[in-house]
Design a protein that fits this description.
The complex is a heterodimer of chains A (106) and B (122). With 106 residues, chain A is mainly beta. Chain A has no helices and nine strands. Chain B contains no helices and eleven strands. The chains are: A mainly beta (106), B mainly beta (122).
């Protein structure tokens, strides 16, 4: 079965750029999306189709996908961006989630 | 504004069947696929499967032997049943709307319900 790998944790200073990666075999040939989940809350879609932002998601969130790696980039990271982030793709009629990355803003 | 709300027992005994319902408001259930996703406490997300308004389903290979989904378009509800549950099935269960173009290999979930915790314990 297809697997997506994310780093367990990423740290960033306020105002800096956070980069969260998601790796999978030939992932660049697939579409990837990203979710933000804060403690006690449901996941929220922040990027879909590799690089599109849903309405209401700040411009500081961006995405890319090439080769074996999809990347979520948060520019000018704010304290309120501290959360778990999950990547997700679709393979062989099944949905696959990455294991999640805890973003710490300190 | 599309809203989804999960409902069902919060406690299920081992070996019994877990049953949940998701009620959709603000959108027609007769479009899109609709999914169930779960999250064990402190762990990541796991897709369980989805259902179309016609009743067509897709299930996760790891759960398909124990999972059944159904849909009632007259009530704007879809449901999940998981049989022979164990402690490993303890999780927050979310329902969500599938968006995207499955034929193109693109899908995403938006929005999600608030989730409901189901504990498997005697």
């Amino acid at each position: 079965s297809y697997e997506l790998t994310q780093p367990p944790s990423v740290s960033v200073s306020p105002g800096q750029t956070a980069t969260i990666t998601c790796s999978g075999d030939k992932l660049g040939d697939k579409y990837t999306c990203w979710y933000q989940q804060k403690p006690g809350q449901s996941p929220v879609l922040v990027i879909y189709q590799n690089n599109k932002r849903p309405s209401g998601i700040p411009e500081r969130f961006s995405g890319s996908n090439s080769g074996n790696t999809a990347t979520l980039t948060i520019s000018g990271t704010q304290a309120l961006d501290e959360a778990d982030y999950y990547c997700q793709t679709y393979d062989s009629r099944s949905v696959v989630f990455g294991g999640g990355t805890k973003l710490t803003v300190l | 504004q599309v809203q989804l709300q999960e409902s069902g027992p919060g406690l299920v005994k081992p070996s019994e069947t877990l049953s949940l319902t998701c009620t959709v408001s603000g959108a027609s259930i007769s479009s899109n696929y609709w999914s169930w996703i779960r999250q064990p406490p402190g762990k990541g997300l796991e897709w369980i499967g989805n259902i179309y308004y016609t009743g067509g389903t897709n299930y996760s290979p790891s759960l398909q032997s124990r999972v059944t989904m159904s849909i009632d378009t007259s009530k704007s509800q879809f449901s999940l049943k998981v049989t022979s549950v164990t402690a490993a099935d303890t999780a927050v269960y979310y329902c969500a709307r599938d968006e995207g173009l499955v034929a193109a290999g693109a899908n995403w979930f938006d929005p999600w319900g608030q989730g409901t915790l189901v504990t498997v314990s005697s």
